């Protein structure tokens, strides 16, 4: 089920903290993400831009890569934070596909700058998706 109480607040706070470390001199659009593993550990990431724009890294993929590098491949939830005031931040298409690699049945908390959020299942963010199991068909 969805996160509640202190667990949810910690995940949201860690995504906000990650956002403060974003390196985004070109877009000036900081994003932070915090990923909760099935084992209860949290890995955070921030966007990191590059003068060669295509070499930049999104916060969501950064958090996933950190978790993978530490041996985690099962995830429960991710919170994503930005400075957007009027809309909830959503992951880009590339991040959605990377997230999908690790299942469709986990929650993604999409926030606004004021801390309000909505929660979506990954399968809602990437319907009719392609994943590892499709390679076996």
Q: Could you walk me through the main structural features you see in this protein, from its secondary elements to its overall organization?
A:
Keywords: Hydrolase, Metal-binding, Zinc. Belongs to the cytidine and deoxycytidylate deaminase family. Helix content is 28%, strand content 20%. It has 137 residues and is an alpha+beta fold. The protein has one domain: Cytidine Deaminase, domain 2 (3-Layer(aba) Sandwich). Strands 2-1-3-4-5 form a five-stranded mixed β-sheet. Strand 1 (32-37) and strand 2 (42-46) form a beta hairpin. The chain starts with a helix and ends in a 12-residue tail after the last helix. The mean pLDDT is 96.
Topology:
Blueprint: H1 5-19, E1 32-37, E2 42-46, H2 59-69, E3 75-81, H3 93-100, E4 107-111, E5 117-121, H4 122-125
Parallel strand pairs: 3-4
Antiparallel strand pairs: 1-2, 1-3, 4-5
Give the CATH level 1 class: Alpha Beta
**Count of alpha and pi helical runs:** 4
Radius of gyration: 14 Å
**Overall number of strands:** 5
Q: Tell me the β content.
A: 15-25%
When the domains are counted, the total is 1
The topology string of helices and strands comes to: HEEHEHEEH
The separation of the N and C termini measures: 30 Å
**What is the share of helical residues?**
25-40%
Q: Regions with pLDDT < 50 over 5+ consecutive residues?
A: none
Give the assembly state of these chains.
single chain
CATH fold assignment: Cytidine Deaminase, domain 2
CATH superfamily (homologous) name:
Cytidine Deaminase, domain 2
Q: How confident overall, as mean pLDDT? A: 96
The side-by-side strand order for the widest beta sheet comes to 2-1-3-4-5
